[in-house]
From TrEMBL, chain A:
This is Lipoprotein. Keywords: Signal. It comes from the Bacteria. Residues 1-17 form the signal peptide.
UniProtKB/TrEMBL annotation, chain B:
It comes from Belnapia arida. PROSITE patterns: NLPC_P60. SUPFAM superfamilies: Cysteine proteinases. This is C40 family peptidase. Belongs to the peptidase C40 family.
Length: 142, 164
């Protein structure tokens, strides 16, 4: 009986460990903020607005920039004070954040020799995420 | 799948790429910084200048913009797709003034400091950057640069010895 309970607990623990966090999912682009973009850049971004950004467990898909098809590293993505999180988007503007400690940091590809390579800087604020693009553009994901 | 032969790099190319990778590692996690030229934060030309000054000695390159690097005579244009250690310049579509610069790492990647990522390697197939590639340039030491730049009356000093 004791063995059965232990095995059950172990299975439950494994299942829990394999449940991805809520932000590891497919996001749609709900808005683009880029006051400093050229009209051409704005049009380029708008034309891709229907695309999906995928924070997968083993891969990252970002049709606006670059994918990590063979391995992704989210180690830098962790809860940070909102004021610090704002700094992660550099010149990008963020609206008021709902979470005092949003997840913020770099998404890195881990599919090459050597240290992981940054492909995105993001802030995840509950049901919304913000992805920095060039020219200070910020993509709002939902 | 047949193996792709790895090109043999010259000592100069290896040196540039080693310094570029060292700067990438040292600047990991640091955001793009306007005017930045240290591992605490780079802008695009600041990163390139840092790498070449580490490789060839302090003051090899003065602090200038991406377009100054392209037109200043130290990086004469070479045919696409360049070679490891060459600079790759970017401009908005339909324009000819470089607004971004990186260093060619291989046939598939370049490295630079981008405003969205900080220092990072980027694939040549990157959907944002690929259409913006303007030209490539290869570093020429000052003496060589003097010899290869066409002289125009009164323009030599301003081309070669631009103030920072």
């Amino acid at each position: 009986m004791r063995w059965l309970i232990a095995a059950g607990l172990l299975l439950a623990a494994c299942a829990h460990a394999e449940t991805p966090p809520g932000w590891q999912r497919t996001w749609r682009v709900a808005g683009i903020d880029c006051p400093r973009c050229s009209p051409a850049d704005r049009a380029w971004l708008a034309a891709r607005q229907a695309e999906r950004v995928v924070f997968g467990r083993d891969a990252f898909t970002n049709p606006f920039y670059e994918d990590c098809p063979q391995g992704v590293d989210y180690a830098d993505l962790r809860p940070r004070p909102a004021t610090e999180a704002r700094g992660f988007l550099g010149a990008g503007r963020l609206p008021a954040l709902g979470d005092a400690m949003p997840l913020a940091g770099a998404v890195r590809c881990a599919d090459r020799a050597g240290p992981p390579n940054t492909v995105a800087r993001v802030v995840i604020d509950g049901p919304r995420a913000y992805l920095l693009h060039e020219s200070g553009a910020v993509l709002r994901l939902e | 799948m047949p193996d792709t032969p790895t090109p043999t790099l010259s000592d100069a190319q290896s040196l540039i790429l080693r310094e570029a990778e060292a700067a990438r590692v040292a600047a990991a996690g640091k955001p793009y910084t306007w005017g930045g030229s240290t591992t605490e934060g780079f802008d695009c030309s600041g990163f390139v200048i840092h790498v070449f000054n580490k490789a060839y000695g302090t003051n090899t390159l003065a602090r200038v913009t991406a377009d100054d690097l392209r037109t200043g005579g130290r990086f004469p244009a070479v045919d696409p797709p360049g070679a490891p250690g060459d600079l790759v310049f970017f401009a908005p579509a339909g324009t000819s003034r470089a607004t971004h610069v990186g260093i060619v790492v291989s046939a598939t990647e370049w490295i630079g400091s981008q405003s969205s990522t900080g220092v990072a390697t980027v694939k040549f197939t990157n959907s944002y950057w690929q259409p913006r590639i303007l030209s490539y340039g290869r570093y020429q030491p000052l003496q060589t640069a003097r010899a290869i730049i066409p002289m125009r009356a009164g323009s030599f000093a301003s081309v070669i010895n631009r103030p920072a």
